[in-house]
Design goal:
globular; six-stranded mixed sheet; 2 domains
Length: 372
């Protein structure tokens, strides 16, 4: 039976280093929830605390209404899928999948029934008598997934399960995992540093940095309205450009330079005249125009459906160390490939761009969701 997970003021320390200072999250029953962030942000540490592999140094974790802090890992009824599969090389596919059922002393008839159903679910029934060394990486991952789910755990935990697969297999397997999770309806906590993977597979995402949750929301919410510039640049790609706020007759404008400004109807009421801001513009939120930001093309890369251009702004208004920005052009909109050093104007889509405080820590657009 699937459960909801409640994490309240959890702390994790290693000697004198605090990895997770004070973290709270709620994961819904049956939800596919992803912990996303760069290496070292604490996402795997948190997963291992849920699993019972790491101790909890403060706060508590609940499965439904039961605090699990002191419950050993083997009594938490979790299924775990690791990065390296961790399937037994000397056992067949069928023997690997039924291993956990034998430990739980499930009857042979019931075990055979469950294993057969699960192998059919992950499309590995025809390979049930093979040893792992005769399976592809994707097939081994399916076996690991089947073994984790067949025991009917309350929670399925997955730690970077696709990182050892090639790009094509990763895309295939994330669809497999998503479909099986929805079919079974089990609460799943998934760890990854791959933002594309997180966007494709999750019901909700928690973006983490240095042991702190920056934002929780659906993939669409986080991509469209990131809470700060860290989230804006970690989830997808964003051009960060310095600007100022101008207020005239009650109307609010973002001013990029003396020649170009945008009227913004969705800025918060407490923005001030002359306030320095950072504007986040994703590559697909720019279009070639006869007005806007004046840029010089550095190079274009053809990707089939679109061309990705790198450019620099004519004015020195880029936020951060990277001076190179990007925009994409759908090839159905043009037959012209822009050449190096070509100068054009790019116009942002004012309904989609985000405006942050000067240090990038706060989104100044009204409809930002911090914790959905």
């Amino acid at each position: 039976m699937s459960v909801a997970i409640k994490i309240v003021n959890v702390v994790k320390k290693y000697e004198k280093t605090t990895v997770i200072p004070d973290l709270s999250l709620e994961i819904k029953n049956g939800e596919f929830f992803t912990l996303l962030g760069p290496s070292g942000c604490g996402k795997t540490t948190l997963l291992r605390m849920i699993a019972g592999f790491n101790s909890i140094d403060g706060g508590y974790i609940k499965f439904d209404d039961e605090v699990i802090n002191e419950i050993p890992a083997y009594k938490r009824n979790i299924g775990m899928v690791f990065q390296n599969y961790a399937i037994f090389p000397h056992l067949t596919v069928k023997e690997n999948v039924e291993y956990g059922l034998k430990l739980r002393k499930v009857s042979k008839d019931e075990s055979d029934k469950r294993v057969e159903e699960m192998l059919k679910t992950v499309k590995m029934y025809d390979y049930k008598d093979r040893l792992p060394d005769r399976l592809s990486g994707g097939q081994q991952q399916r076996v690991a997934l089947a073994r984790a789910i067949v025991i009917r755990p309350n929670v399925l935990l997955m730690d970077e399960p696709l990182s050892n697969l090639d790009a094509k297999l990763r895309i295939e397997m994330r669809s497999v995992i998503r479909d099986i999770q929805k079919q079974i309806g089990i609460t799943t906590v998934y760890v990854t540093h791959d933002q594309e993977e997180a966007l494709a597979i999750s019901d909700r995402i928690a973006v983490m940095k240095e042991g702190i949750v920056q934002q929780v929301g659906t993939p669409c919410q986080i991509y469209k309205r990131p809470i700060n510039t860290f989230v804006a640049t970690f989830i997808g790609s964003s051009n960060l450009i310095k600007a100022k706020i101008s207020i005239e007759n009650g109307d609010k404008y973002v001013v990029f330079n003396k020649e170009y400004r945008l009227k913004m109807n969705n800025l918060k009421s407490d923005v001030k005249e002359g306030q320095d801001v950072v504007v986040s513009i994703r590559p697909e939120e720019l279009k070639i125009s006869d007005k806007g930001l004046k840029v010089k093309i550095l190079k274009g890369t053809f990707f089939g459906k679109f061309i990705n251009y790198e450019f620099i702004l004519k004015d020195d208004i880029v936020f951060g160390e990277n001076r190179v920005c990007e925009f994409v052009q759908d090839i159905s909109d043009t037959n012209k490939f822009l050449k190096e050093n070509h100068e054009i104007y790019l116009e942002p889509d004012l309904t989609r761009i985000n405006v942050f405080s000067e240090d990038g820590s706060v989104n100044l657009v009204e409809d930002v969701i911090i914790n959905e």
